[in-house]
Design goal:
Elements lengths: L14 H29 L3 H31 L2
Amino acid sequence: MVEWPFGPSGALTQPFAALMTGLFVLVGLVHMRLGMQEIIEDSIHGEGTKLVLLILSLFFCVAIGAASILALFKLTLGG
């Protein structure tokens, strides 16, 4: 059997690794939101539909970000 050097949660139990992973997730989500915004603005012609899709896109990114950060906290704190 292989012994993990940082326990079963891996390197994410280390604060620096968890911080860098969290920043990477946040930067990725901002990049995704901006890309989705550009696609929606270019492709959708109705103003009402465009507004609804932009709001849904923002809520989706916030939800994914919150779930990712909570999962990262749980891994880091050993829960």
